Amino acid sequence: MTGVQTCALPIYNGGASRAWVAGPQVWAQVTPLRMERRFAAAREEMTITHHVVFRFREDVDVACRFRDGARIFRVRALEDADARRTWLRALCEEIRS
């Protein structure tokens, strides 16, 4: 599985364009599930479709995505899977193209 992160690419007029770039390769256990979380009023609704568990990393946050072949998973939340910073569990939504 490849980590995918967004980065700012400078453009000629002094601004920046956002692009997705490949990050580190990680071994991960992908578990399909279906879970919906609904939040109040102005908060976003989200659907969690997969758990992705891999070795703990400091450079993964909710702005990241994972790619497994043609499949893309958007990270919606992260949790320390074993409370010892050994494993990280990402609650992900598979992006359908």
Low-confidence stretches: none
Quote the beta fraction: over 45%
The secondary-structure class comes to: mainly beta
What is the end-to-end distance? 18 Å
Average residue-wise pLDDT: 81
Oligomer: single chain
> Care to count the β-strands?
7
The sequence of SSEs as H and E is: EEEEEEE
Side-by-side strand order of the widest sheet: 2-1-5-6-7-4-3
Give descriptors for this structure:
single chain, 97 residues, mainly beta, 7-stranded antiparallel beta sheet, globular
Can you put this structure into words, describing what you see?
The protein has no helices and seven strands. By secondary structure, it is mainly β. The protein has a seven-stranded antiparallel beta sheet, with no helix packed on it. It is globular and about 45 Å long.
Would you summarize the structure shown here?
This protein is mostly beta strands and 97 residues long.
What order do the helices and strands come in, and which of them pair?
Blueprint: E1 2-10, E2 16-25, E3 29-37, E4 46-55, E5 65-68, E6 71-80, E7 87-95
Antiparallel strand pairs: 1-2, 1-5, 3-4, 4-7, 5-6, 6-7
